[in-house]
Give the backbone structure.
Amino acid sequence: MTIDFKPLCYSLVKYSSTLFLYFFISIFINKTYAAEGGPCKDYGECEEFKHSLTDMPSLQSGASTFITYCYGCHSLQYSRWNRVSSDLEIPEEIFFNSLVFDPSIKPGDLMVGSMSKQDSAEWFGVAPPDLTLVTRLHGSDWVYTYLKTFYEDSSKQYGVNNLVYPGVAMPNVLAALQGNQQLVCKNVPVIASNGGEKRDDLGKTITEEKCGYLSVKEGTGTLNEQEFDKLIYDLTNFLTYVGDPDKIERERLGWYVVFFFIIFTALSSLLYREYQKDYH
Ligand code: HEC
Protein backbone atom coordinates (compact mmCIF):
# COMPACT_ATOMS: atom_id res chain seq x y z
CA MET A 1 0.00 0.00 0.00
CA THR A 2 1.32 3.42 -0.85
CA ILE A 3 0.50 6.47 1.18
CA ASP A 4 -0.26 9.65 -0.68
CA PHE A 5 1.74 12.32 1.10
CA LYS A 6 0.63 15.13 -1.13
CA PRO A 7 -2.43 16.26 0.83
CA LEU A 8 -0.43 15.98 4.04
CA CYS A 9 2.40 18.17 2.71
CA TYR A 10 -0.06 20.57 1.27
CA SER A 11 -1.84 21.06 4.57
CA LEU A 12 1.47 21.31 6.43
CA VAL A 13 2.54 24.22 4.25
CA LYS A 14 -0.89 25.77 4.46
CA TYR A 15 -1.07 25.53 8.26
CA SER A 16 2.46 26.61 8.96
CA SER A 17 2.11 29.66 6.74
CA THR A 18 -1.23 30.51 8.35
CA LEU A 19 0.42 30.21 11.76
CA PHE A 20 3.22 32.42 10.59
CA LEU A 21 0.80 35.04 9.36
CA TYR A 22 -1.19 34.85 12.58
CA PHE A 23 2.02 35.27 14.56
CA PHE A 24 3.02 38.47 12.74
CA ILE A 25 -0.49 39.89 12.87
CA SER A 26 -0.56 39.33 16.64
CA ILE A 27 2.85 41.03 17.03
CA PHE A 28 1.52 43.96 15.03
CA ILE A 29 -1.67 44.20 17.10
CA ASN A 30 0.33 43.90 20.30
CA LYS A 31 2.70 46.67 19.26
CA THR A 32 -0.12 48.93 18.18
CA TYR A 33 -2.55 48.51 21.04
CA ALA A 34 -0.91 46.85 24.06
CA ALA A 35 0.58 48.85 26.90
CA GLU A 36 -1.09 51.90 25.46
CA GLY A 37 -1.39 54.16 28.47
CA GLY A 38 -4.24 56.56 28.89
CA PRO A 39 -3.44 60.01 27.58
CA CYS A 40 -1.44 61.96 30.13
CA LYS A 41 -4.14 64.59 30.79
CA ASP A 42 -2.66 68.07 31.37
CA TYR A 43 0.77 66.83 30.27
CA GLY A 44 -0.53 65.88 26.81
CA GLU A 45 1.16 62.84 25.27
CA CYS A 46 2.84 60.57 27.83
CA GLU A 47 6.59 60.21 27.63
CA GLU A 48 7.62 57.01 25.91
CA PHE A 49 8.92 54.26 28.18
CA LYS A 50 10.85 51.26 26.84
CA HIS A 51 11.28 48.51 29.43
CA SER A 52 14.46 46.47 29.70
CA LEU A 53 13.56 43.44 31.76
CA THR A 54 16.90 41.72 31.38
CA ASP A 55 18.72 44.66 32.93
CA MET A 56 19.10 43.28 36.46
CA PRO A 57 20.89 46.30 38.02
CA SER A 58 18.00 48.51 36.83
CA LEU A 59 15.32 46.16 38.22
CA GLN A 60 17.25 45.78 41.49
CA SER A 61 17.58 49.51 41.93
CA GLY A 62 13.86 49.93 41.09
CA ALA A 63 12.93 47.32 43.71
CA SER A 64 15.06 49.05 46.30
CA THR A 65 13.49 52.46 45.53
CA PHE A 66 10.02 50.93 45.66
CA ILE A 67 10.52 49.23 49.01
CA THR A 68 12.16 52.33 50.50
CA TYR A 69 9.81 55.04 49.22
CA CYS A 70 6.54 53.42 48.15
CA TYR A 71 5.94 50.18 50.03
CA GLY A 72 4.97 52.13 53.17
CA CYS A 73 1.72 53.05 51.42
CA HIS A 74 1.38 50.75 48.38
CA SER A 75 1.27 46.95 48.47
CA LEU A 76 2.28 44.56 45.67
CA GLN A 77 -0.14 41.95 46.89
CA TYR A 78 0.06 39.58 43.91
CA SER A 79 3.80 39.02 44.18
CA ARG A 80 5.87 37.17 46.74
CA TRP A 81 9.11 38.33 48.32
CA ASN A 82 11.11 35.25 47.30
CA ARG A 83 9.85 35.33 43.70
CA VAL A 84 11.05 38.94 43.37
CA SER A 85 14.42 38.16 44.92
CA SER A 86 15.01 35.12 42.69
CA ASP A 87 13.75 36.78 39.46
CA LEU A 88 15.96 39.79 40.17
CA GLU A 89 18.90 37.54 41.03
CA ILE A 90 19.32 39.00 44.52
CA PRO A 91 20.46 36.30 47.00
CA GLU A 92 17.60 35.86 49.48
CA GLU A 93 19.79 36.57 52.50
CA ILE A 94 21.06 39.88 51.12
CA PHE A 95 17.56 40.84 49.97
CA PHE A 96 16.04 40.23 53.40
CA ASN A 97 18.89 41.78 55.40
CA SER A 98 19.18 44.93 53.36
CA LEU A 99 15.64 45.64 52.16
CA VAL A 100 12.96 43.81 54.09
CA PHE A 101 14.14 44.19 57.72
CA ASP A 102 10.87 42.97 59.29
CA PRO A 103 11.74 39.55 60.82
CA SER A 104 8.09 38.44 60.87
CA ILE A 105 8.02 38.42 57.05
CA LYS A 106 8.69 35.00 55.53
CA PRO A 107 10.23 34.57 52.06
CA GLY A 108 7.05 32.96 50.68
CA ASP A 109 4.74 35.73 51.93
CA LEU A 110 2.81 37.97 49.57
CA MET A 111 3.90 41.63 49.55
CA VAL A 112 0.70 42.81 51.20
CA GLY A 113 1.96 46.19 52.39
CA SER A 114 2.40 47.58 55.84
CA MET A 115 -0.47 50.03 56.11
CA SER A 116 -4.05 49.24 57.01
CA LYS A 117 -6.44 50.18 54.20
CA GLN A 118 -8.83 51.81 56.68
CA ASP A 119 -6.19 54.10 58.26
CA SER A 120 -4.82 55.16 54.92
CA ALA A 121 -8.27 55.88 53.51
CA GLU A 122 -8.84 58.15 56.51
CA TRP A 123 -5.50 59.92 56.08
CA PHE A 124 -5.50 60.43 52.33
CA GLY A 125 -9.24 60.40 51.63
CA VAL A 126 -8.59 57.39 49.39
CA ALA A 127 -6.61 54.23 50.14
CA PRO A 128 -3.34 54.03 48.15
CA PRO A 129 -4.11 51.38 45.52
CA ASP A 130 -2.19 48.14 45.15
CA LEU A 131 0.45 48.66 42.45
CA THR A 132 1.10 45.10 41.24
CA LEU A 133 -0.87 45.66 38.05
CA VAL A 134 -0.60 49.44 37.74
CA THR A 135 1.57 49.30 34.60
CA ARG A 136 -0.95 46.91 33.01
CA LEU A 137 -3.83 49.18 33.96
CA HIS A 138 -2.44 52.52 32.81
CA GLY A 139 0.59 51.49 30.74
CA SER A 140 4.23 52.00 31.72
CA ASP A 141 4.37 55.28 29.78
CA TRP A 142 1.67 56.70 32.03
CA VAL A 143 3.35 55.59 35.28
CA TYR A 144 6.74 56.89 34.13
CA THR A 145 5.30 60.29 33.20
CA TYR A 146 3.11 60.47 36.32
CA LEU A 147 6.08 60.00 38.65
CA LYS A 148 7.94 62.87 36.99
CA THR A 149 5.15 65.43 36.83
CA PHE A 150 4.39 66.37 40.44
CA TYR A 151 4.56 70.14 40.93
CA GLU A 152 4.07 72.60 43.77
CA ASP A 153 0.50 73.78 44.19
CA SER A 154 -0.30 75.48 47.48
CA SER A 155 -4.05 75.07 46.97
CA LYS A 156 -3.76 71.32 47.52
CA GLN A 157 -3.71 69.32 50.76
CA TYR A 158 -0.05 68.24 50.41
CA GLY A 159 1.04 71.37 48.54
CA VAL A 160 1.46 69.35 45.33
CA ASN A 161 -0.51 68.51 42.25
CA ASN A 162 0.23 66.35 39.25
CA LEU A 163 -0.07 67.06 35.52
CA VAL A 164 -0.93 63.47 34.61
CA TYR A 165 -3.32 62.94 37.52
CA PRO A 166 -4.75 66.38 38.37
CA GLY A 167 -5.96 66.63 41.97
CA VAL A 168 -4.07 63.48 43.05
CA ALA A 169 -4.27 62.52 46.74
CA MET A 170 -0.67 61.23 46.84
CA PRO A 171 2.04 63.38 48.41
CA ASN A 172 5.19 63.94 46.34
CA VAL A 173 7.31 61.40 48.20
CA LEU A 174 10.33 61.87 45.95
CA ALA A 175 10.46 65.67 46.27
CA ALA A 176 13.65 65.61 48.36
CA LEU A 177 15.41 63.75 45.54
CA GLN A 178 13.94 65.64 42.58
CA GLY A 179 13.80 69.10 44.18
CA ASN A 180 10.94 71.58 44.09
CA GLN A 181 9.29 71.32 40.73
CA GLN A 182 7.04 74.19 39.68
CA LEU A 183 4.96 75.26 36.73
CA VAL A 184 6.63 78.18 34.99
CA CYS A 185 5.97 80.44 32.04
CA LYS A 186 8.38 80.71 29.10
CA ASN A 187 8.78 82.82 26.00
CA VAL A 188 8.40 80.44 23.09
CA PRO A 189 8.52 81.12 19.33
CA VAL A 190 5.13 81.64 17.68
CA ILE A 191 4.54 78.96 15.06
CA ALA A 192 3.16 80.11 11.70
CA SER A 193 0.51 78.18 9.80
CA ASN A 194 3.18 76.65 7.54
CA GLY A 195 4.81 75.04 10.58
CA GLY A 196 7.85 77.37 10.71
CA GLU A 197 8.65 80.05 13.29
CA LYS A 198 6.94 83.40 12.77
CA ARG A 199 9.36 86.30 12.16
CA ASP A 200 8.88 90.06 12.11
CA ASP A 201 10.00 92.39 9.27
CA LEU A 202 13.56 92.45 10.61
CA GLY A 203 13.76 88.67 10.57
CA LYS A 204 13.59 88.32 14.34
CA THR A 205 11.60 85.42 15.74
CA ILE A 206 8.32 86.51 17.32
CA THR A 207 7.77 84.97 20.74
CA GLU A 208 4.82 84.72 23.08
CA GLU A 209 4.58 83.83 26.75
CA LYS A 210 3.21 80.35 27.43
CA CYS A 211 2.73 78.81 30.85
CA GLY A 212 2.50 75.30 32.22
CA TYR A 213 6.12 74.18 31.76
CA LEU A 214 7.72 72.06 34.47
CA SER A 215 10.93 73.35 35.96
CA VAL A 216 12.90 72.24 39.02
CA LYS A 217 14.35 74.97 41.25
CA GLU A 218 18.07 74.55 41.06
CA GLY A 219 19.84 73.15 44.10
CA THR A 220 16.67 71.99 45.89
CA GLY A 221 17.01 68.25 45.16
CA THR A 222 19.74 65.77 46.02
CA LEU A 223 19.73 64.29 42.49
CA ASN A 224 20.29 66.08 39.20
CA GLU A 225 17.84 65.73 36.32
CA GLN A 226 19.56 62.73 34.69
CA GLU A 227 19.96 60.90 38.00
CA PHE A 228 16.31 61.48 38.87
CA ASP A 229 15.18 60.31 35.41
CA LYS A 230 17.24 57.16 35.87
CA LEU A 231 15.69 56.55 39.30
CA ILE A 232 12.17 56.86 37.83
CA TYR A 233 13.18 54.72 34.85
CA ASP A 234 14.37 51.91 37.16
CA LEU A 235 11.29 52.23 39.36
CA THR A 236 8.93 52.02 36.36
CA ASN A 237 10.99 49.14 34.94
CA PHE A 238 10.52 47.29 38.23
CA LEU A 239 6.75 48.00 38.22
CA THR A 240 6.58 46.74 34.63
CA TYR A 241 8.31 43.52 35.73
CA VAL A 242 5.98 43.10 38.75
CA GLY A 243 2.90 43.56 36.53
CA ASP A 244 3.96 40.66 34.32
CA PRO A 245 6.82 38.62 35.84
CA ASP A 246 6.74 36.02 33.07
CA LYS A 247 7.27 38.59 30.33
CA ILE A 248 11.05 38.03 30.29
CA GLU A 249 10.60 34.30 29.79
CA ARG A 250 7.88 34.81 27.15
CA GLU A 251 10.00 37.23 25.17
CA ARG A 252 12.93 34.75 25.28
CA LEU A 253 10.80 31.77 24.23
CA GLY A 254 9.16 33.82 21.45
CA TRP A 255 12.43 33.81 19.50
CA TYR A 256 12.58 30.00 19.58
CA VAL A 257 9.02 29.87 18.29
CA VAL A 258 9.93 32.19 15.41
CA PHE A 259 12.97 30.03 14.52
CA PHE A 260 10.85 26.91 14.71
CA PHE A 261 8.30 28.39 12.32
CA ILE A 262 10.97 29.48 9.84
CA ILE A 263 12.70 26.11 9.79
CA PHE A 264 9.44 24.18 9.78
CA THR A 265 8.01 26.20 6.89
CA ALA A 266 11.23 25.82 4.89
CA LEU A 267 11.36 22.07 5.46
CA SER A 268 7.73 21.43 4.70
CA SER A 269 7.81 23.51 1.53
CA LEU A 270 10.89 21.56 0.36
CA LEU A 271 9.04 18.36 1.07
CA TYR A 272 6.02 19.66 -0.79
CA ARG A 273 8.15 20.47 -3.83
CA GLU A 274 9.66 17.02 -3.71
CA TYR A 275 6.26 15.35 -3.82
CA GLN A 276 5.00 17.76 -6.46
CA LYS A 277 7.65 16.35 -8.84
CA ASP A 278 5.75 13.06 -9.05
CA TYR A 279 2.79 14.79 -10.62
CA HIS A 280 4.58 16.44 -13.53
C1 HEC B 1 2.16 58.52 51.84
C2 HEC B 1 1.55 57.47 51.10
C3 HEC B 1 2.05 57.22 49.69
C4 HEC B 1 3.35 56.94 49.31
C5 HEC B 1 4.58 56.82 50.17
C6 HEC B 1 3.30 56.72 47.88
N1 HEC B 1 2.02 56.85 47.42
FE1 HEC B 1 1.39 56.52 45.52
N2 HEC B 1 -0.49 57.00 46.06
C7 HEC B 1 -0.92 57.34 47.34
C8 HEC B 1 -2.34 57.62 47.31
C9 HEC B 1 -3.19 58.03 48.50
C10 HEC B 1 -2.76 57.41 45.97
C11 HEC B 1 -4.18 57.56 45.41
C12 HEC B 1 -4.27 58.90 44.76
C13 HEC B 1 -5.64 59.23 44.22
O1 HEC B 1 -6.34 58.31 43.75
O2 HEC B 1 -5.96 60.42 44.23
C14 HEC B 1 -1.58 57.03 45.22
C15 HEC B 1 -1.59 56.76 43.85
C16 HEC B 1 -0.51 56.28 43.15
C17 HEC B 1 -0.54 55.89 41.75
C18 HEC B 1 -1.74 55.95 40.83
C19 HEC B 1 -2.45 54.64 40.88
C20 HEC B 1 -3.74 54.61 40.14
O3 HEC B 1 -4.06 53.53 39.63
O4 HEC B 1 -4.43 55.62 40.07
C21 HEC B 1 0.72 55.46 41.43
C22 HEC B 1 1.22 54.94 40.08
C23 HEC B 1 1.53 55.60 42.60
N3 HEC B 1 0.75 56.10 43.64
C24 HEC B 1 2.88 55.29 42.65
C25 HEC B 1 3.66 55.48 43.77
C26 HEC B 1 5.08 55.21 43.79
C27 HEC B 1 5.88 54.63 42.63
C28 HEC B 1 5.52 55.53 45.03
C29 HEC B 1 6.94 55.49 45.53
C30 HEC B 1 7.86 56.38 44.87
C31 HEC B 1 4.38 56.00 45.80
N4 HEC B 1 3.26 55.94 44.99
C32 HEC B 1 4.42 56.38 47.12
C33 HEC B 1 -0.14 57.39 48.46
C34 HEC B 1 1.22 57.17 48.49
Notes: Residues 69-70, 72-74, 124, 126, 128-129, 131, 134, 137, 143, 146-147, 168-171, 173-174, 235 surround heme C (CB under 6 Å).
